């Protein structure tokens, strides 16, 4: 499903919390995954991941390619010249096409590309100033803050880390701040895709999500844009409650998530964009 990103100075997603707070969990998660992948032998590289049709090697090829995109997007954004590379982005076809176009690289070459791009990205995040986190850069949604770009990158890598590790029978580490940032991201992605795809154009909606282990609580408000509140709006009804990792995996289309019909708008955009609905 082709997405029509929103470019310009009115981002489709905004976050109200400390924009720079995503840096530490994003760096930690990337470096942890790099250590995991660096220990792979031939069997681990060729093992099937949770991503249909992708081996672990394919997932790492994908992550290296998106690392390079995030780096370019953030660098251009901090220069005040945000890119417009994803005007024809398809969340299903585009990543699959890039993995296929990579051919048949050796595991050593895949590892080198992933480690190099990972360290370049984490080094870049450490150089961002407080003011730069609010500057606009490109994500699959269009122009959003650099903070929102990094949140998207963290969510994507966090889910793919589990795609790799759970497929091997390993249980990834759960860090509260990583879960918090990734959960706020994916909870906003569904409504944001709905806005961009035209299914939520004129609707005004609010919902609170609360989780345990770790505790996360925030409110999503939709009115042609998606606003993620730092805390909970007492007037907004609780739409989702459960264990944090289960909710995060459910919103990310990895495991079943039961929602009452009135809250389907939280996931409908992602289901449509990723053709899983």
TrEMBL record:
Database matches in SUPFAM superfamilies: DinB/YfiT-like putative metalloenzymes
Mycothiol-dependent maleylpyruvate isomerase metal-binding domain boundaries: 31-164
Cross-referenced Pfam families: MDMPI_N
Name this polypeptide is given: Mycothiol-dependent maleylpyruvate isomerase metal-binding domain-containing protein
Protein source organism: Rugosimonospora acidiphila
């Amino acid at each position: 499903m082709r997405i029509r990103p929103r470019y310009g100075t009115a981002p489709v997603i905004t976050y109200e919390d400390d924009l720079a707070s995503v840096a530490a969990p994003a760096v930690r998660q990337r470096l942890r995954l790099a250590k995991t992948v660096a220990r792979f032998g031939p069997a681990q590289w060729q093992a099937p991941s949770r991503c249909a049709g992708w081996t672990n090697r394919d997932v790492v090829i994908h992550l290296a390619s998106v690392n390079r995109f995030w780096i370019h997007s953030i660098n251009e954004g901090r220069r005040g010249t945000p890119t417009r590379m994803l005007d024809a982005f398809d969340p299903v076809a585009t990543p699959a096409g890039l993995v296929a176009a990579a051919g048949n690289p050796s595991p050593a070459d895949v590892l080198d590309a992933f480690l190099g791009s990972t360290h370049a990205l984490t080094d870049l995040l450490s150089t961002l100033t407080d003011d730069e986190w609010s500057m606009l850069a490109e994500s699959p949604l269009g122009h959003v803050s650099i903070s929102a770009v990094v949140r998207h990158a963290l969510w994507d890598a966090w889910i793919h880390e589990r795609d790799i590790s759970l497929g091997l029978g390993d249980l990834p580490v759960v860090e509260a701040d990583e879960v918090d940032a990734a959960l706020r991201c994916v909870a906003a992605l569904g409504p944001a895709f709905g806005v961009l795809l035209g299914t939520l154009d004129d609707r005004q909606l609010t919902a609170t999500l609360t989780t345990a282990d770790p505790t996360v609580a925030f409110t999503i408000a939709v009115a042609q844009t998606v606003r993620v509140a730092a805390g909970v709006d007492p007037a907004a009804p609780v739409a989702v409650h459960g264990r944090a990792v289960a909710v995060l995996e459910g919103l990310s289309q990895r495991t079943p998530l039961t929602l009452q019909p009135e809250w389907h708008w939280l996931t409908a955009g992602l289901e449509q964009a990723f053709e899983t609905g």
